[in-house]
Structure formats: C-alpha cells, structure tokens
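ARCHIVE RECORD
Type: protein–small molecule complex
Small molecule: zinc ion
Source of inputs: curated submission
Record status: active
Notes field left blank by submitter.
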Amino acid sequence: MTCEEFDKEYDVVSRLMSDGLIEIPSSCSCCGGELSFVVERSQIHFRFNCGTCGSSVSIRDGTIFSGSRLKISQIIDLCRAWWKKRSLMEAADVGHTSVQSECSWFSNCRLMCSNWVELEAPQLGGPNKVVEIDEAAFGRRKYKLGRLKETVWVLGGVERSSRKVFLEIVRDRTARTIIPIIQKWVAPGTTNHDR
Ligand SMILES: [Zn+2]
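STRUCTURE (tokenized, with ligand):
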C-alpha cells in the first residue's frame, strides 16, 4: 500500500468520523474504560483500543463497511459513482475494484435508499392539499412477442402542489390491498383524486 493510498483512507475515515457517519464510542463497552484511536498503517486498519481491559473494536463494526474487504475510501468512491449514475464499468474503474464488487455495492445503495423511503419518507398531502392517485400495469413479453406474460401493478400518487410522489408495487388491485397503502402514503385530511 502506498503513502498516497493510506493518506486517502485516513482522510476519508477522519471525515466520516467528524460527520458522525462512523460513531466514536465514548468508552469501552466491556469495562467502561477509556478508548484510544489506533491506526495500523501496514494493514490500513483503524480501531479503538481499551487501555483497561485491552479489548479492541474496529471502526467498521456496526457500519455498512463491516464485512467488506474493500478499503473504506473505495466503498465511498463506489457509493459516489452510484449516486452519479455511472455505469458499472466506469464505476469499477473509479473505485479500482471489480465489476462484481461494484454490482454488490450498487445493490447495497439501492437497498439503503429503499429502506430509507420505507421508514423515513414523509407522507404526501394534508389539509387543503390534493393528491392524485393512479395505477399502471407494467408487463414483460416472453421473447418480446405475444401477450403480456408477467404483469406488475404499480400504485402511485402525486401531490399536486409540490409534485412529490410515491410509488409502490401492489400484488392486486383490490380495496383491501390498496387502501392501507394509501393510508400509509397520504396524510389524513387530503383531497384524493382517483384518476
Ligand atoms: Zn475495556
């Protein structure tokens, strides 16, 4: 590993720690002792060591970086490439990794975003706001010929004033399926327009 690679990794890790994306533990989880930040330059590894009981915790533990053999700076490069909608080949080049690693991190990025939408995305609408609700079928033709074979129904809504949207795949179009989804995405008191 070159000095340049180490410096880049150190800069990225310092930035993630100062931004709170890598948590700095206040004390040792085993004994409550004081922790010191340790850098293993030869293996480009960063950890916290307890001065009292000698236990050690990697900065990767409990983060998206745990379990990956890639450097943290490479992972950040891959996430940035995904964010900028780079192709897999381009991104693998930027992150100096394989297309296989790239595929796996692109998939992680998609998963993190969909989890965020699932847990954190605000509802549309509210009093005096209009949300237009519609549904659409997406299908795939077998061998690009003939009738649609697999039809997927998507329920969506658009808040008229802000153009904020929600989209969700539905297993069928019954009221039993659709009403809970609308209740999840659309705030009480909204005027719903079903197209
Ligand atoms: Zn300890």
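CURATOR ANNOTATION: The first strand starts at residue 35 and ends at 40.
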